[in-house]
């Protein structure tokens, strides 16, 4: 097992431990039913069936568990964005796909699982570290598309002239 060397995002203990995944999955189910604001770690202990000390072996806090849930969601969304960016041809097509994915995922979460959407609201309001990571990834994707659009909008002779100098 790999040992977790830093308390990045409140994680503790071994990084590739199946118990961590069990806790995150069970917490995800619990939060989707009761919401983040109305749930305590004690509630999770009852729902999951582990002791509080055992949960704290893997996570610093309720927020750390939620950040792990958000990280899972974000990683899935980033994979979809990466695939869309690779397969789209033009800059405008890339922008449309990027926008559709970001807005579509947020709308789907808002409509289909309002309680989990509330976690994102808490993350933004309380400035959780994963919120900044998500914003940086989105900004990077938009910058790539903007850079591509800028280059593709110039006449070919300008690009050729730049290459020859």
SSE layout:
Layout: H1 18-34, H2 41-48, H3 52-58, H4 62-87, H5 91-112, H6 114-125, H7 129-153, H8 156-164
Helix pairs in contact: 1-4, 1-6, 4-5, 4-7, 5-6, 5-7
For this structure, the CATH topology is: Tetracycline Repressor, domain 2
Number of strands: 0
Please state the second-level CATH architecture: Orthogonal Bundle
Binned strand content: under 5%
Low-confidence stretches: 1-8, 152-165
Order of helices and strands: HHHHHHHH
State the major sheet. Answer: none
Arithmetic mean of pLDDT:
75
Supply the number of helical segments.
Answer: 8
Derived from helix and strand composition plus strand pairing, the structural class reads mainly alpha
Q: Over the alpha carbons, how many angstroms does the gyration radius reach?
A: 20 Å
CATH superfamily: Tetracycline Repressor, domain 2
- Describe the global form: elongated
Q: Give the helix proportion (percent range).
A: over 70%
């Amino acid at each position: 097992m790999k040992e977790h060397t830093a308390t990045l995002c409140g994680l503790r203990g071994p990084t590739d431990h199946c118990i961590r995944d069990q806790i995150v999955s069970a917490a995800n189910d619990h939060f989707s039913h009761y919401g983040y604001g109305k749930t305590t770690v004690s509630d999770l202990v009852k729902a999951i069936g582990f002791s509080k000390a055992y949960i704290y072996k893997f996570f610093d806090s309720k927020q750390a568990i939620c950040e792990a849930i958000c990280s899972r969601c974000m990683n899935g969304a980033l994979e979809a964005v990466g695939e869309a960016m690779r397969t789209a041809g033009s800059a405008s097509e890339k922008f449309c796909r990027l926008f559709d994915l970001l807005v579509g995922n947020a709308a789907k979460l808002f409509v289909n699982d309002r309680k989990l959407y509330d976690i994102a609201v808490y993350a933004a309001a309380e400035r959780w570290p994963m919120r900044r990571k998500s914003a940086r990834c989105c900004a990077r994707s938009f910058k790539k598309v903007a850079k591509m659009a800028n280059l593709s909008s110039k006449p070919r002779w300008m690009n050729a002239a730049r290459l020859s100098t």
